[in-house]
Design a protein that fits this description.
Keywords: Lipoprotein. With 108 residues, the protein is mainly α. It is 67% helix and 4% strand. The chain has one domain (2-102).
Length: 108
């Protein structure tokens, strides 16, 4: 049971939108969303995990092909919102310093 819990926590954490946006470069985030054919042009750094998940859910229908996957994004969005709130002081500073994460840009 402990191994199953560890695996579940690892999967949830590595798929967490907040974890992804805080540990990846802007270029990696943009490439991932472009690969999923997201229609987002930018993501704010404040509540970036929630925004990242919303962009994934607003991707082409080929990227999200199962209701189960949509459910996982919704659950992750709730957890990302809580995590985003915890790191709010850091993300407010980063938003002021660096601006939005650009997804649709010629440099990426």
């Amino acid at each position: 049971m402990k191994i199953l819990t560890l695996i579940l926590c690892t999967v949830i954490l590595t798929n967490c939108g907040t974890f992804t946006t805080l540990t990846s470069t802007d270029r990696e985030i943009a490439a991932n969303l472009k690969k999923q054919k997201s229609s987002c042009e930018s993501i704010p750094r404040v509540y970036s995990g929630l925004s990242y998940n919303m962009c994934k859910m607003h991707s082409s229908s080929e990227s999200i092909n199962a209701d189960l996957l949509l459910g996982i994004y919704l659950i992750d969005s709730v957890m990302s919102t809580a995590t985003d709130t915890a790191v709010l002081p850091f993300t407010i500073y980063e938003q002021h310093k660096s601006g939005n994460i650009l997804v649709r840009s010629s440099q990426y």
